[in-house]
Design goal:
Elements lengths: L31 E4 L1 H7 L7 H14 L3 E5 L5 H12 L8 E7 L2 H11 L4 E9 L2 H5 L7 H18 L7 E9 L6 H15 L7 E7 L6 H14 L6 E7 L6 H10 L4 E4 L13 H9 L12 H12 L20 H18 L35 H12 L8 H15 L5 H12 L6 E12 L2 E10 L2 E9 L2 H12 L4 E10 L8 E9 L5 E8 L2 H16 L2
Parallel strand pairs: 1-2, 1-8, 2-3, 3-4, 4-5, 5-6, 6-7, 7-8
Antiparallel strand pairs: 9-10, 10-11, 12-13, 13-14
Helix pairs in contact: 2-11, 4-6, 6-7, 8-9, 12-13, 13-14, 14-15
The structure holds acetyl coenzyme *A (ACO), 3-methyl-2-oxobutanoic acid (KIV) and magnesium ion.
Pfam families: HMGL-like, IPMS_D2, LeuA_dimer
Cofactor: Mg(2+)
GO molecular function: 2-isopropylmalate synthase activity
Length: about 550
């Protein structure tokens, strides 16, 4: 921001609430959720959804588990009205779902809204008028508090009068002092209480008071103070569902909602992935999965978040940011080595500990939830670039290709792969990593190549190996004896005068992924002068041949 322009902004005044209790509260259960995707989300789209797209989105919201869905502003336009009619006339609203419609507290719009909901089994009629000093002064031309309260009262009375005109519909009433976030609290409560006094809700027939953070002017703690203050001063608190509706102007929609719940709210309005006016509405996916991550069930099913996101992106023509919590492309991806190392260790440890303890507490560094719980896979967790470490490379080779590299081989392979990523200045995908691993470590054949070998079993624990090799371009037959195939082959090389190493470690296993008939063997050799110790790998259908090829690979690497 231009420094000279700072002086035109003012701090937001704190709420006088010294005995606030919300900081000590914990969220222990889910609120009532209401999706406003089809209204607040839709009204903020450069190209609003068509009726067909809204129908598809409505079905998606029902599948996710929303029981309250604001379907639009039917009095605003024919498309909105017709959408409402189609839902009702085509019987598309599930028994346990209540539609909600929004309307300004203006007579002709309220009347039209009642026409829109005719025939619905249940509907929330949501009326609003703006209440803040800024809106009173600017939008309503210096209207007084009384004039604004009278708009709310007139709207509430008209809704009360029209309710009997739709006897087949169970009407739930909702009032929002729009721009609540910068309205004086005593005036917000005056408007709300005036409406409550007209509608006279009871604990058995509650109404909804929605307190919108229409524009976020203040920090989330102030929002929480406002909600706690309202909960203390609203009439008939036990007959109300107090509802939150945060936007995200300061990037704190989620925080404001979570603190608002701690402050006593019962209900949350928001949208999938935070679509909505300006910086958006509250992202319900975010808040609901945050709750799940603390073990709180929410009634919303995001177990296949990728499919939900795909429908959302197609019908809204918006996109989910790569860093969006839970849903973003990169949020379960660790690029840096220390993260990769910790995640691999965490997942490995969990795999070992989980048997017999299916509800073992989740505890993997850097991952707040198990990606599998929202339909994302472990394969995508770690990606490799020049910032990656040995742990990540080993993880990919293990999880995606079935190579369980010996621990002391990790630094050698990791360095080779991330040097490659660095030199190519790009991220390597899992197949490129496998290819690079094969190119640099597996079945190497220069300067030494093993063409074939046979074994004669001489005595117990003694074998003779006959092998055909090519060494420095020259084909030779060699022979040696030992206590096993590798040992006898090493002696054959010794007899030929091309052994300049000591075998220091050996490991083999069947490959778990892909070509499952193959075995992998790893051999570590140390040069006789002690200057190098390196691992090589062999991959073959026969475990014996894999071992010999691993030895040849390590030998070749020592000669570089
Ligand atoms: C924060 C939110 O998201 S609120 C929801 C906002 N969403 C929408 O408005 C989407 C749908 N709305 C629309 O399409 C249109 O606004 C309509 C069709 C509903 C109404 O259209 P119009 O009446 O032609 O225009 P518009 O909305 O600009 O009306 C402004 C007038 O209504 C008045 N007004 C606005 N809200 C209210 C209210 N709740 N009660 C009484 N008057 C109101 C304004 O003061 C203004 O009055 P003025 O003309 O005397 O200055
Ligand atoms: C209509 C109201 C609830 C609204 O969308 C807002 O204030 O943001
Ligand atoms: Mg809004």
């Amino acid at each position: 921001m231009k420094p000279d322009n700072i002086s035109k902004y003012r701090p937001f005044p704190p709420v006088q609430l010294t005995d606030r209790t919300w900081p000590d509260q914990q969220i222990t259960s889910a609120p009532i959720w209401c999706s406003v995707d089809l209204r607040d989300g839709n009204q903020a789209l450069p190209q609003p959804m068509t009726v067909e797209e809204k129908l598809e989105f409505f079905d998606l919201l029902c599948r996710i588990g929303f029981k309250q869905i604001e379907i639009g502003f039917p009095s605003a336009a024919d498309t909105e009205f017709n959408f409402c009619r189609r839902l009702i006339e085509e019987n598309r609203i599930p028994e346990d779902v209540t539609i909600q419609i929004l309307v300004q507290t203006r007579e002709h719009l309220i009347r039209r809204s009642f026409e829109a909901i005719k025939g619905a089994k249940r509907a929330i009629v949501h009326i609003y008028n703006s209440t803040s000093p800024l809106q009173r002064r600017i939008t309503f031309n210096d209207a007084s508090r009384e004039q604004i309260r009278d708009i709310a009262v007139a709207g509430a009375e008209l809704v009360k009068e029209l309710t009997p005109t739709v006897p087949e519909t169970e009407i739930v009433l909702q009032y929002s002092p729009e721009s609540f976030s910068d309205t004086e609290l005593d005036f917000s409560v005056e408007c709300c209480n005036a409406v409550i006094d007209i509608w006279q809700p009871t604990p058995d027939k509650k109404m909804i008071i929605n307190l919108p953070d229409t524009v976020q002017w203040a920090t989330p703690n102030i929002h929480a103070d406002q909600i706690e203050w309202m909960c203390r001063h609203l009439h008939r608190r036990d007959s109300l569902d107090v509802s939150l509706h945060t936007h995200n102007d300061r990037g704190t929609g989620t925080a404001a909602t979570e603190l608002g719940l701690m402050a006593g709210a019962d209900r949350v309005e928001g949208t999938l992935f935070g679509n909505g006016e300006r910086t958006g509405n509250l992202d319900i996916v975010n808040v609901a999965l945050n709750m799940n991550s603390h073990g709180i069930p929410t009634g919303l099913d995001f177990s296949n978040l990728a499919d939900i996101r795909a429908v959302y992106e197609r019908v809204t023509r918006m996109s989910v940011s790569e860093r969006a919590p839970y849903a973003g492309e990169l949020v379960f991806t660790a690029f840096s080595g220390s993260h990769q190392d910790a995640i691999k260790k965490g997942l490995d440890r969990r795999e070992k500990e989980i048997s017999g303890t299916p509800d073992l507490a989740w505890g993997v560094p850097y991952l707040t939830i198990d990606p599998e719980d929202i339909g994302r896979s472990y394969e995508a967790i770690i990606r490799i670039n020049s910032q990656s470490g040995k742990g990540g490379v080993a993880y990919i080779l293990d999880r995606e290709h079935g190579f369980d590299l010996p621990k002391t081989m990790h630094p050698q392979v990791g360095k080779t792969i991330y040097d490659l990523a660095d030199s190519q200045a790009k991220e390597l995908d899992s197949h490129e990593i496998r290819d690079a691993f094969f190119h640099h470590f597996v079945n190497l054949c220069s300067p030494l190549q093993l063409i074939e070998y046979e074994l004669d079993h001489l005595n117990v624990g003694e074998v003779k190996c006959h092998a055909t090799i090519i060494y420095n371009g020259e084909e030779k037959r060699i022979e040696g004896t030992g206590n096993g195939p590798i040992n006898s082959f090493v002696h054959a090389l010794e007899v030929e005068g091309i052994k300049n190493f000591t075998l220091t470690d050996y490991r083999s296993h069947a490959i778990r992924v892909g070509s499952d008939s193959d075995s992998a063997a790893y051999i570590q050799l140390r040069l006789d002068d002690g200057s190098k110790t390196l691992w090589g790998c062999g991959v073959e259908p026969s475990i014996e041949m894999a071992g010999l090829k691993a030895l040849v690979s390590a030998f070749n690497l020592l000669q570089e």
